[in-house]
């Protein structure tokens, strides 16, 4: 295609990408360099139903003057990135100096909110993604062998977990694993332990979240693989059969290599999706045991009387950085294949 | 059947009649009243009463949502503001005051506030900035029947609550007789604030925004909360105020710390388990560490009038809200809240909050940086509660998280 035609074809998409992706990311990045002005405080007497007391208040008039002068707030440079809520350079350094063993160092670092969230996010990404690909592939192979008459309903039911909104799916399961819910109560019976709680134990909460993640995303992998299976060249399969290849050997040496590009595609999508895991944490009320980078952003913006925009912006930029790092190997691989073909 | 029908028709007639009287009483000529409020029974009653002021020239609209706190600042910042009235509580008024988004009400109080009592006026720096209409707070809910059957007196201190729980567990009456809103996040932080207030401690160093909770009082509060949790269902880590009610109604709890604003629904006649509703009683929040103050923060609910609206709308809004929180509304909904309005007499549902107030419980702090400390508490106490770190470490984590947030918000250098 001539470059001119290509450009004419692509420019609306490019424009949309600049408007809706590049500009917002730049503005978030810019925001992350600022913090709120120092608050001008005054002491005033405040009275209510429970008596009077002298309390400190923000001087609203003085503050609005400050904000009119510089609406973005106070320039803080990379200060927000380095503070204890984010990369916490000082705290990590102190932990390194004070700890006697690597284990102790890790424990100290894992107590910092950002690293705690990063650890869960990475664990979730690297446990759920491969399981989704494997499980999705298995379901696709299984469904492909089901008789034509049953295929419709089977496919529909296999897709259900993906059709259910993540938050609703999580809430439904949340109630089922309650100590009084059907799964929770059954487990207590099975293990004969009345104090067993999937919600209270950190380990079990992680397992629950991973299982939920696989349950929710496997249908996506299934549907992609299933579509791919329909295009596997039948003559290659038949010749393999003539050569006496077993069922497993046919899958191993024909189907899997043929579907590899699809696996790359799913891995790419799932890495991105799982790295910003958020809904299950809310749905399972798992904040106590598992926080993710996205949850940190939510928490900065939502809780407390003052949304911490700078902090949320810094977490967002770090998350974007994380996604880029995760995707780099896959992208390099795709680029190499592209060049080889070209 | 016939009786129900009769009851319903009488009720509807009474409602229509009272609505007729109310709209005649409002006397507002014109204006627009737009109410933003939280979503619970007492506030429904108020908004419904205010709506009776609607006429051909007066519009009254409402948005009652638990998300009110997250939209109130942006909604009142626009000019004209999206809402003329914001119904607020001790903590949610602070961002509005900080942002200078509400107007002084002294003139309106002088002109239209005949029904108001002095205690309802929230004065900041001498000016009336909000009107309070109900008090709230957490306190002890207990099952009178279970305690009596086992020879346990109504506990007044946490030590007694824990002893009673132990007795019930040892006798095999209940494995997990306690409940409290210990869900990490806002609820767990609120419980810490309650418990800490009972120790008599202050949250900040005098005259500064520097947090001061990593001390003996903080450790006492945490130790008590930890021990409470050992007598709770293993799922306590997800319990908040709304979750505890069905479990109470199922008869699985003998004592809990709950909000005064939901007490009415626990003893309502239409409760799904009438026997339990009948045996449910309320008392002041327990004291802690040999102290005499109930471990509970007192809260008030009230309303403010937006600054960025026309004077006409502001006056109409104030007058409509006067109808909303009138003694008549309170009398008709006596069970819905602990009203601060004239002529209200405490009902059985109000016993706990009134007992808190009489025993000298302290108000929830109204300083602008309290919300940041509350968030830091909610995010950092769970690990201690689950036995993964020491109380000292948890309080140090809280202080570190608070310091970071307070620096970013401009309260600390």
UniProtKB/TrEMBL annotation, chain A:
<dbReference type="InterPro" id="IPR035906">
    <property type="entry name" value="MetI-like_sf"/>
</dbReference>
<dbReference type="InterPro" id="IPR051393">
    <property type="entry name" value="ABC_transporter_permease"/>
</dbReference>
<dbReference type="GO" id="GO:0005886">
    <property type="term" value="C:plasma membrane"/>
</dbReference>
<keyword id="KW-1003">Cell membrane</keyword>
<feature type="transmembrane region" description="Helical">
    <location>
        <begin position="204"/>
        <end position="229"/>
    </location>
</feature>
<feature type="transmembrane region" description="Helical">
    <location>
        <begin position="117"/>
        <end position="142"/>
    </location>
</feature>
<protein>
    <submittedName>
        <fullName>ABC transporter permease</fullName>
    </submittedName>
</protein>
<dbReference type="Pfam" id="PF00528">
    <property type="entry name" value="BPD_transp_1"/>
</dbReference>
<comment type="similarity">
    <text>Belongs to the binding-protein-dependent transport system permease family.</text>
</comment>
<feature type="transmembrane region" description="Helical">
    <location>
        <begin position="7"/>
        <end position="30"/>
    </location>
</feature>
<keyword id="KW-0472">Membrane</keyword>
<feature type="domain" description="ABC transmembrane type-1">
    <location>
        <begin position="118"/>
        <end position="330"/>
    </location>
</feature>
<feature type="transmembrane region" description="Helical">
    <location>
        <begin position="154"/>
        <end position="177"/>
    </location>
</feature>
<dbReference type="InterPro" id="IPR000515">
    <property type="entry name" value="MetI-like"/>
</dbReference>
<keyword id="KW-0812">Transmembrane</keyword>
<feature type="transmembrane region" description="Helical">
    <location>
        <begin position="308"/>
        <end position="332"/>
    </location>
</feature>
<keyword id="KW-1133">Transmembrane helix</keyword>
<feature type="transmembrane region" description="Helical">
    <location>
        <begin position="250"/>
        <end position="271"/>
    </location>
</feature>
<dbReference type="GO" id="GO:0055085">
    <property type="term" value="P:transmembrane transport"/>
</dbReference>
<keyword id="KW-0813">Transport</keyword>
TrEMBL record, chain B:
<keyword id="KW-0732">Signal</keyword>
<keyword id="KW-0813">Transport</keyword>
<dbReference type="Pfam" id="PF01547">
    <property type="entry name" value="SBP_bac_1"/>
</dbReference>
<dbReference type="InterPro" id="IPR006059">
    <property type="entry name" value="SBP"/>
</dbReference>
<dbReference type="InterPro" id="IPR050490">
    <property type="entry name" value="Bact_solute-bd_prot1"/>
</dbReference>
<dbReference type="GO" id="GO:0042597">
    <property type="term" value="C:periplasmic space"/>
</dbReference>
<protein>
    <submittedName>
        <fullName>Sugar ABC transporter substrate-binding protein</fullName>
    </submittedName>
</protein>
<feature type="signal peptide">
    <location>
        <begin position="1"/>
        <end position="24"/>
    </location>
</feature>
<comment type="similarity">
    <text>Belongs to the bacterial solute-binding protein 1 family.</text>
</comment>
């Amino acid at each position: 295609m001539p470059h001119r035609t290509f450009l004419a074809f692509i420019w609306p998409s490019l424009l949309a990408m600049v408007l809706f992706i590049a500009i917002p990311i730049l503005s978030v990045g810019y925001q992350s360099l600022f913090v709120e002005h120092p608050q001008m405080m005054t002491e005033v007497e405040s009275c209510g139903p429970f008596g009077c007391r002298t309390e400190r208040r923000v001087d609203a008039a003085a503050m609005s003057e400050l904000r009119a002068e510089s609406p973005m707030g106070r320039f803080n440079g990379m200060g927000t990135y380095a503070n204890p809520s984010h990369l916490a350079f000082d705290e990590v350094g102190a932990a390194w100096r004070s700890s006697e063993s690597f284990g102790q160092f890790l424990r100290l670092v894992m107590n910092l909110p950002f690293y705690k969230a990063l650890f869960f996010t990475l664990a979730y990404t690297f446990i759920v993604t491969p399981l989704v690909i494997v499980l999705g592939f298995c379901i696709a192979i299984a469904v492909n062998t089901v008789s034509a008459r049953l295929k419709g309903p089977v496919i529909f039911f296999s897709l259900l977990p993906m059709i259910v909104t993540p938050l609703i799916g999580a809430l439904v399961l949340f109630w089922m694993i309650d100590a009084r819910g059907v799964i929770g109560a059954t487990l207590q019976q099975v293990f004969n332990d009345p104090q067993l709680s999937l919600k209270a134990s950190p380990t079990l909460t992680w397992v629950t979240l991973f299982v939920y993640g696989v349950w929710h995303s496997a249908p996506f992998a299934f549907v992609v693989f299933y579509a791919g299976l329909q295009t596997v060249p039948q003559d290659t399969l038949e010749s393999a059969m003539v050569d006496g290849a077993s069922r497993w050997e046919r899958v191993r040496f024909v189907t899997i290599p043929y579907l590899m590009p699809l696996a790359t595609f799913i891995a790419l999508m799932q890495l991105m999706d799982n790295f910003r895991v958020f809904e299950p944490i809310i749905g399972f009320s798992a904040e106590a045991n598992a926080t993710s980078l996205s949850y940190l952003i939510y928490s900065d913006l939502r809780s407390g009387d003052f949304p911490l925009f700078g902090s949320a912006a810094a977490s967002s930029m770090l998350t974007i950085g994380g996604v880029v790092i995760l995707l780099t190997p896959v992208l390099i691989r795709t680029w190499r294949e592209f060049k080889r073909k070209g | 059947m016939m009786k129900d029908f009769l009851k319903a028709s009488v009720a509807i007639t009474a409602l229509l009649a009272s609505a007729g009287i109310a709209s005649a009483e409002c006397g507002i000529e014109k204006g627009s009243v737009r109410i933003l409020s939280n979503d619970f029974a007492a506030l429904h009653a108020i908004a419904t009463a205010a709506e009776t002021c609607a006429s051909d020239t007066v519009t009254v609209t409402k948005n009652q949502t638990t998300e009110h706190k997250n939209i109130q600042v942006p909604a009142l910042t626009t000019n004209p503001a999206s809402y003329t009235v914001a119904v607020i509580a001790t903590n949610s008024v602070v961002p509005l005051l900080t942002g200078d988004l509400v107007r002084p009400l002294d003139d309106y109080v002088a002109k239209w506030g005949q029904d108001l009592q002095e205690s309802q006026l929230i004065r900041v720096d001498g000016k009336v900035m909000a009107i309070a209409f109900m008090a709230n707070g957490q306190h002890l809910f207990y099952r009178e029947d279970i305690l009596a059957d086992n020879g346990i007196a109504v506990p007044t201190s946490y030590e007694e609550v824990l002893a009673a729980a132990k007795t019930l567990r040892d006798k095999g009456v209940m494995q997990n007789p306690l409940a409290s809103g210990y869900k990490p996040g806002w609820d767990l932080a609120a419980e810490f604030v309650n418990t800490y207030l009972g120790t008599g401690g202050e949250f900040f160093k005098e005259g500064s925004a520097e947090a001061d909770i990593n001390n003996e009082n903080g450790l006492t509060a945490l130790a008590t909360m930890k021990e409470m949790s050992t007598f709770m269902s293993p799922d306590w880590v997800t319990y908040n105020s709304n979750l505890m009610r069905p479990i109470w109604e199922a008869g699985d709890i003998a004592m809990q710390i709950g909000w005064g604003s939901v007490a009415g629904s626990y003893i309502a006649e239409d409760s799904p388990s009438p026997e339990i509703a009948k045996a449910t009683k309320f008392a002041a929040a327990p004291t802690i560490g040999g102290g005499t103050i109930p471990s509970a923060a007192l809260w008030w609910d009230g309303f403010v009038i937006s600054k960025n609206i026309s004077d006409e709308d502001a006056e109409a809004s104030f007058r409509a809200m006067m109808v909303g929180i009138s003694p008549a509304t309170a009398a008709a909904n006596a069970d819905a809240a602990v009203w601060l309005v004239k002529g209200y007499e405490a009902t059985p549902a109000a016993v706990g909050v009134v007992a808190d107030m009489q025993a000298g419980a302290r108000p929830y702090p109204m300083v602008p940086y309290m919300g940041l400390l509350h968030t830091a508490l909610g995010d950092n106490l769970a690990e201690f509660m689950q036995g993964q770190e020491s109380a000292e470490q948890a309080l140090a984590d809280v202080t570190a998280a608070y310091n970071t947030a307070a620096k970013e918000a401009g309260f600390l250098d």
